[in-house]
Automatic annotation (TrEMBL):
This is Phage tail length tape-measure protein. The lineage of its organism: Bacteria, Pseudomonadati, Pseudomonadota, Acidithiobacillia, Acidithiobacillales. Residues 13-150 form the YqaJ viral recombinase domain. Gene3D superfamilies: 3.90.320.10. InterPro entries: PDDEXK-like_dom_sf (IPR011604), Restrct_endonuc-II-like (IPR011335), UCP028503 (IPR016889), YqaJ_viral_recombinase (IPR019080). Pfam families: YqaJ. It comes from Acidithiobacillus caldus (strain ATCC 51756 / DSM 8584 / KU).
Length: 505
């Protein structure tokens, strides 16, 4: 069922929606053809919710894209002959939560529109092949899959007077490939194990050869370079690389600033020496040694700070998720089949909760709050499911038979009023059927016979029970009830259609 979401692109609500779905812009990375993002990095982002912050350069590109979209929209509408509406929609396909954020969709949903900023490679590819490059193709294929549209108009440009366009229609082999790709991705995501990043230290070159000697007139009158070098190298050797606390990170960042200042001082000294024109072979060698050591330290610590910060955040998110998971496990021991289901996007949502935090302390506070809210939600679901279990148990005790084999599944999706309605209908149907004759003279239908009559549709015993038709002692159903079964099916289908229309509105 296609669902439309009334969210504005770029808002926190939209970002949260993207976190819980597989999106069109992620399809190229999932298929391994994105020039901007690798599949493994996409897995990591979806698993942890940790998405890189949008920097100033990227924001400029985003803003340019929005401006180009607005400028080309009237021209795209003239090409299509219909008005285009931006929007966000989702559909579950074979259990996959798919989402598409559309530049434009026609009112009848038959055509989608996607615009990209002017790019010479894209323009050349369209001219040669009649379609966009493959990384754009997978986004279009995804959009057609989600919306059910017949075709897509692809444009590339910055304004309504200067753009190229082409039409794209889904191909069976590509539709099959993208579905298989998302299924594989979903399985990999479910089994994803967070692996800390590793930082590759900068290698130290062998001892340098002595410098070529050139004799010139002049000499160094006084210098403490040798002592300065020895003291600097001694300090650098004592700098810790195992960063754990906020204080460790603060010390490391201060050391980076200190090292950069020292590098600047070396440059100043070199300039001063050159101005005096002495023979400074040994001085330059000492300064170069110090400079190389300082440079290695800056790069090492820069890398260590970044990697260790990321790893600490991942460890914190994992620990928070384990706390919530343990809470769900405890509820599962108590409630069994009626236990609440832990959200599949929990880890990603916890990771997203610490986005923008600068210190481990701030991240921990955000995670504590997110964990508390997750447990509150679990307890709220558990209370509702306990009530459902009690309602079914009490009704079964009154009737003397369990008419709700699908009770746990019903309880997951229905509120108390809806469950009471199901209970009442099945109890009434059971009592009514119990009062009817069940002799051989009463014609009965097997479940298989009913399915054959309503083919190509089908139904299960649980489905018939949900409609209010419990089986007879011999497992069959009264022939006389078949028209009522058909009427109940029609009513259910009409209700689903009305619900879909209401969601679309």
């Amino acid at each position: 069922m296609l669902r439309y979401h009334r969210v504005e692109q770029g808002t926190p609500e939209w970002l949260s929606l993207r976190l819980r779905h597989f999106t069109g812009s992620e399809a190229p990375a999932m298929m391994g053809v994105s020039p901007y993002l690798g599949r493994n990095e996409l897995l990591r982002q979806k698993a942890t919710g940790m998405v890189p912050e949008v920097d100033a350069t990227t924001q400029v590109i985003f803003d340019a894209g929005h401006a180009a979209e607005a400028a080309i929209r009237p021209a795209a509408e003239r090409v299509i002959g219909e008005e285009l509406f931006p929007g966000t929609c989702s559909r579950d396909v074979d259990g996959l939560p798919l989402l598409a954020s559309l530049d434009g969709l026609t009112m009848d949903g038959s055509i989608v529109w996607e615009n990209k900023l002017k790019n010479e490679e894209t323009i050349a590819h369209i001219a040669e092949h009649g379609e966009p490059p493959l990384h754009h193709v997978w986004q279009l294929e995804h959009q057609l899959l989600v919306t059910g549209a017949e075709k897509a108009l692809f444009t590339c440009g910055t304004d309504g007077e200067d753009f190229v366009r082409c039409w794209y229609e889904s191909r069976p082999e590509r539709r099959e490939a993208i579905l298989a790709g998302w299924k594989r991705f979903a399985e990999d995501l479910a089994n994803y194990t967070l692996r800390p990043d590793e930082y590759e230290f900068i290698g130290v070159a062998p001892d340098r050869l002595p410098a070529l000697h050139v004799a010139v007139s002049g000499r160094i009158l006084a210098s403490n370079i040798a002592e300065w070098r020895d003291r600097t190298l001694e300090i650098l050797a004592g700098i810790p690389r195992d960063l754990r606390t906020d204080q460790d990170f603060a010390n490391a960042e201060e050391t980076i600033r200190w090292a950069k200042e020292a590098l600047d001082r070396i440059a100043v000294v070199k300039d001063a020496v050159l101005a005096q024109m002495p023979d400074v072979e040994q001085m330059f060698r000492s300064l170069d040694d110090i400079g190389e050591a300082l440079g290695r330290t800056v790069k090492d610590l820069d890398g260590l700070v970044k990697v260790r910060k990321d790893n600490i955040r991942l460890e914190m998110v994992q620990k928070a998720a384990e706390s919530v998971r343990a809470h769900y496990d405890a509820l599962a021991l108590e409630l069994g089949a009626y236990a609440p289901t832990m959200p599949s996007a929990l880890l990603a949502e916890l990771g997203a909760s610490i986005k923008g935090t600068r210190t481990a302390k701030a991240a921990a506070a955000k995670l504590d709050s997110a964990v508390a809210q997750a447990k509150i939600a679990a307890d709220r679901d558990a209370d509702r499911l306990r009530t459902a279990r009690r309602l079914f148990a009490d009704a079964a005790a009154r009737v003397g038979v369990d008419l709700w084999p699908d009770g746990p599944a019903l309880a997951q999706t229905m509120d108390e009023d809806a469950l009471l309605g199901v209970i009442a209908r099945r109890v009434n149907a059971h009592r009514l059927q119990g009062s009817r004759p069940t002799s051989k003279a009463s014609k009965t239908l097997s479940l298989e016979a009913i399915c054959a009559r309503i083919s190509p549709l089908g139904i299960t015993k649980a489905g018939l029970a949900q409609l209010g038709f419990a089986p007879l002692p011999d497992g069959g159903y009264l022939e006389a009830d078949f028209p009522k079964i058909c009427a109940a099916l029609v009513a259910t289908l009409q209700s689903a259609a009305k619900s879909e229309m209401a969601d679309a509105a």
